[in-house]
């Protein structure tokens, strides 16, 4: 059995747009990926490490532990051996308190890639492959998240291009969620249940190819 770690934020955590509730595992991204791969005869387990508000490499001034680079090496060590790490981060880099642009988030992802590759795993265990996933294109934020994400849909312009460049330079796999869906029309930021299904199915196909390459 091959283990896949999904390292993400509230999008992958499965928050239901407009609420503080969470989709059940079988309905959120990681669960859809796992069920799709199992149905295709792939012996896999998808492990979630997803935290609401997690950035690539920056702190949240109001909540502790949101810097995605902190604790990542230990997460790799805990979950090893891993065949693949799926990074789904970036959305929170554009919260209103951050003056960030797409290039900066790309550099954040590059740091996470380095941390994964240098994690203190046990001797003989494989360094996992990495799949960078660009979050869905944000819409104008509405509802409870509107103030927090004011202007985010403009600040994140160019994120896919920035991530694709980093992926090519670092020789990791790349997937743009915008090929499948935008963000939820309920709040402009997260994913609706049907969008988890669509994106999970698409990622399962990508991951299946990566896992086969490893065999």
Report on the architecture of this protein.
The protein is of the alpha/beta class and 215 residues long. It has one domain (2-214): SGNH hydrolase (Rossmann fold), CATH 3.40.50.1110. The protein has seven helices and five strands, in the order βααβαβαβααβα. Strands 2-1-3-4-5 form a five-stranded parallel β-sheet, with helices on both faces. Strand 3, helix 4 and strand 4 (129-134) form a beta-alpha-beta unit. Helix 2 (29-39) crosses helix 7 (193-214) and helix 4 packs parallel to helix 6 (159-170). The longest helix has 22 residues, at 193-214. The termini are close together. The mean pLDDT is 97.
Q: In CATH terms, what is the architecture?
A: 3-Layer(aba) Sandwich
Which shape, going by the Cα principal axes?
globular
Rg calc: 16 Å
Give the CATH topology.
Rossmann fold
Low-confidence stretches: none
Number of strands: 5
CA-CA gap between termini: 12 Å
- The number of helical segments is 7
Q: What strand line-up does the widest sheet have?
A: 2-1-3-4-5
Supply the helix-strand structural class. Answer: alpha/beta
What does the main sheet amount to? 5 strands, parallel
Instruction: Give the amount of beta strand, in percent.
Output: 5-15%
**In which range does the helix fraction lie?**
25-40%
CATH class: Alpha Beta
Domain SGNH hydrolase-type esterase: 6-197
Protein name: Lysophospholipase L1
Pfam family, one: Lipase_GDSL_2
GO molecular function, one term: hydrolase activity, acting on ester bonds
């Amino acid at each position: 059995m091959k283990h896949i770690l999904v390292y993400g934020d509230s999008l992958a955590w499965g928050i239901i747009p407009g609420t503080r509730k969470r989709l059940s595992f079988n309905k959120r991204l990681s669960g859809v990926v796992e069920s799709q791969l199992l149905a295709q005869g792939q012996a896999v387990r998808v492990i979630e490490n997803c935290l609401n508000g997690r950035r690539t490499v920056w702190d949240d001034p109001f909540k502790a532990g949101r810097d995605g680079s902190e604790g990542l090496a230990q997460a790799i060590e805990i979950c090893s051996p891993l065949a693949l790490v799926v990074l789904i981060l970036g959305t929170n880099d554009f919260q209103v308190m951050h003056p960030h642009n797409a290039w900066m988030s790309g550099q954040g992802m590059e740091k996470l890639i380095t941390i994964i590759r240098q994690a203190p795993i046990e001797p003989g265990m494989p360094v996992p492959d990495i799949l960078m996933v660009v979050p869905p294109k944000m819409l104008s934020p509405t509802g409870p998240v509107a103030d927090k994400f004011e202007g985010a849909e403009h600040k994140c312009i160019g994120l896919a291009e920035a991530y694709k460049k980093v992926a090519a330079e670092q020789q990791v796999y790349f997937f743009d969620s915008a090929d499948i869906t935008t963000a939820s029309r309920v709040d402009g930021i997260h994913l609706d249940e049907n969008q988890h299904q669509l994106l999970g199915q698409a990622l399962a196909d990508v991951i299946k190819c990566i896992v086969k390459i490893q065999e």
